[in-house]
Amino acid sequence: MPRAFFIMKNNSFYFSHDYNAANDTKILFLRHQLGMEGYGIYWFLIEQLANAGGRLPLELIPVLTMQMQSTDVKVNGVIHNFDLFKIEQGEFYSERLEDHLQLRLKLSESGKNGAANRWANRGAIGEANAKERKEKEIKGKENKENKTKESKGKALTLFSESIYNDIKIFEQSFLGTQYEGANFTYYHEVIKNWSDSTGNKKRDWIATAKNWMAKDMTKGTFIDKNYKPNANNQTKSRVSHATEEQFIQTAFKRNGGW
User: Fold this and answer.
1) d(C-alpha 17, C-alpha 46), whole Å
2) Cβ-Cβ contacts under 8 Å for 25 (sequence gap 6 or more)
């Protein structure tokens, strides 16, 4: 007979319930004689037996009857008839329930043994994990130091003195980034003019350009490669309308004074 299995949770005990028990031959006879009331009496008795560890004295029947608001005749009928319970030494019990309780006890003991083994191995595992974490920390620190050394090793240069003065190298530096759709002619010119006019020198001009583009994205003024200032007889771009000095000052102010 198929069964549904449950486990303990929050100190509440669950026993396996045959989910088609209503169609069991013995239960069918019970239902034929006592209807669904008899069926309810049967499961109430099973629950009380499970709470008591598997067995209850027959002298407790009047108390159980009172709890169910039934009659002694009906409760005794469920216990003594239909071969659903066994009676032994003044006690009644369910063989199916006892099998389940024994299985639960066995699983509980297995769980305790497993927990004990895990605690025994915890020290070794913890030591291995600590060693791994330490190695990662050391590696991370070394990478950080190398990046710092690499950064410090770069000389401060004007944009026009750097390799990025070559617009092709400048554009290739953004491949695979969120900025690869930028209008590189525009950003190359504006950064170059700003550096030349202010004398500003940087160790990493690509980082500066990315920051510049990021600010434009935030403000909604990002210039992408599809920007065509002269399309459809529109006014010319701000670059062509302004003097080089005005253009630089506008870009410089818009980006917070790079």
Assistant:
1) 10
2) none
Q: How far apart are CA 220 and CA 135, in angstroms?
A: 44
76-115: pLDDT as tens digits:
999 999 999 999 999 999 998 988 888 878 887 776 776 6
What span, in angstroms and rounded, lies between the C-alpha atoms of 244 and 71? 104
Segment 102-157, tens digit of pLDDT: 887 888 777 677 666 777 666 666 677 778 888 888 887 877 776 665 555 578 99
Local structure of residue 55 (DSSP, 8 states)? E
Nearest-angstrom CA–CA distance, 194 and 199: 8
Decide if 14 contacts 8 (C-beta within 8 A): yes
Cα of 180 vs its chain's centroid, Å: 33
Q: 227's torsion region: left (phi>0), alpha (psi -120 to 50) or beta?
A: beta
In sequence order, what are the beta bridge partners of 17? 4
